[in-house]
Amino acid sequence: MRIFSYLGKKVGDLTIKYSNLPESYIKRSYEQVYWRNPKGYPQYPAAQVARKKYRFTTHRPWTAQFRRDNEPNKLRKKVFLEPVGEWSFFKGDRVEIMIGKDKGKQGIINQVIQERNWVFVEGLNTHLRVVGKDKKFPGVTIQSEAPLLVTTGVKLVDPETLKGTDIEWRYTEEGDKVRVSLASSRIIPIPKAAEETMDFKSKALYIENTDKDTAAADVTKITFQPKLATFEMDIMESMGIKEDRVPAKSYWY
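^ thats the sequence. predicted structure below, dont judge the formating
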């Protein structure tokens, strides 16, 4: 099992490194390097002076808005996040706002940012901001939704009482993991919108490409057979190698 977990971790690292949006590109897009030793000179160590602290908001790291939020010599306060053990909010959930000017109102979550414990509720908790303002143009005032913390700002709506409630994860008799309201013990199903990707594609509408996609039957097929043998012993058995050497005697005093 340790070998399986190790290989699974390596596959996950390769997926992050060589995916359609690799992590290396994201890092290059926002990093600010002020000074770096030239490459190709062994007498110079691989040292550099770069910015270490960035402020991550709703703007993507490769956008101009992110660069404006993290201009050189512009420092922000450190953000402390309360760890969330089990994430319970998904796109399409109906929630009740617990703080702010819209306290008590209910709406639908249209965006989730787990890295900051944020959710955005459609049409609620909004503020006005000016976009495109310069010396010649006064700009356009638009209404923008501000994020809400899932720890203090919102609660899921109970399907029976239609009020905000705390929930916990439980298992059904069939073994399915579900969200259960603590107020009425009703199951709060995960909405279908949670399966949609950024380009509004869902699992039901996806058409498999037989030339590129791995079939679902191959993915769910169990190919690992547990044995009371180490990784080296398993390799030797598969290659027909027999160990005929006799280990040297060792003495302990």
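The longest strand covers residues 106-113.
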